[in-house]
Amino acid sequence: MGAGPAGLTLANLLLAEGIDCVVVEAESREFIEQRPRAGFLEEWAVRALERRGLAGPALLGAQAQGDCEFRLGGTRHLFRYGALSGHRHIVYPQQFLVTDLVRAYADEAGGDIRFGARDVAVHGIRTESPSVTWTDPDTGRERTVVCDFVAGCDGARGSSRSAIPEGGVEVFRHDLGVGWLALLAEAPPSAERVVFGLHPQGFAAHMARSPQITRYYLECPPGDSADNWPHERVWSELRTRLAARGADPLNEGEVIERRVLDMHNYVVEPMTYGRLHLAGDAAHLVAPVAAKGLNLALNDALLLADAFRAYYREGDESGLEGYSDACLRRVWQYQDFNRWVSEIVHGPSSGDPFRAGVAAARLRRMTRSERAGRAVAALYIGSDADH
């Protein structure tokens, strides 16, 4: 269920093992291949895809980053997490990865994928023969697939989660109390690294997506409207919040995307109900403070693929039985780190002098103490997430 990074990675790995599967996706192929989302892959995730034959030349040749910059009070603080951890981030927009995975599954391997599915519903997940029904967009006829298992990779509002009866799982939610205005600008990056601006007027961020496109974020009130952020206001706030001594001026350009994100996190426990296994945003959401969501989705898919392989090849059910616990170890580590970083980036704009002081102290410690920096770097890049 769902042709995002989790669903497509899982489908490719199942097909490679000769395990029959069908991918059901509500949107069109064109839509999912163009939908802008996350852009930072942790190096362990790229290497895992490479070992499984799912990392193409574009991904393996993509730009790698090993440091980021925080700006507070006009001062620039460089965090060299790559040198401290021995690992880096790979800059590769999610839609590029989705395009690669669709091509590998549907075009090269002949995998079965149904785009534009309507009225999707999951049935019988407590039985040994669950099924999925949907309306074919071309014929208007209802289609049914009877299967052994359903992998719910279709997000928080997808049909998978709604198939679980009330009380079947628990959902733990944490609201950050802020919104983020997510922006894509047709403008070359203005810095060679990710930049986080910590400012009393609100947080801001700069992230390169390509030589011509830059992702920006601006903290805004929760529930704000993108209509409140015309071109001049956007660039005025970015200039103010990202200002620092010695920094290059921003390269400005047309803003081609504006949307307000409700900054919250949630975790579903367990990630399994009957013969339904949740993955990606269907199971957990991490606000994009520390670029963790895409990496968690891939971790889920890799673990679930290994569990299905053991079940079908060896009759070993332990991987499926332990799937939720195995995933949740990394999920909760990333949630903890995400909240820790959130206190740094949102503290100066909180209006609370105590929170602002704590944020500054954390920033100084992680950028000036090698010992503290190593611990933060390992969590930032995901190399210490399963402990």
UniProtKB/TrEMBL annotation:
<dbReference type="InterPro" id="IPR002938">
    <property type="entry name" value="FAD-bd"/>
</dbReference>
<feature type="domain" description="FAD-binding">
    <location>
        <begin position="2"/>
        <end position="337"/>
    </location>
</feature>
<dbReference type="InterPro" id="IPR050631">
    <property type="entry name" value="PheA/TfdB_FAD_monoxygenase"/>
</dbReference>
<protein>
    <submittedName>
        <fullName>4-hydroxybenzoate 3-monooxygenase</fullName>
        <ecNumber>1.14.13.2</ecNumber>
    </submittedName>
</protein>
<keyword id="KW-0560">Oxidoreductase</keyword>
<dbReference type="InterPro" id="IPR036188">
    <property type="entry name" value="FAD/NAD-bd_sf"/>
</dbReference>
<dbReference type="Pfam" id="PF01494">
    <property type="entry name" value="FAD_binding_3"/>
</dbReference>
<dbReference type="GO" id="GO:0018659">
    <property type="term" value="F:4-hydroxybenzoate 3-monooxygenase activity"/>
</dbReference>
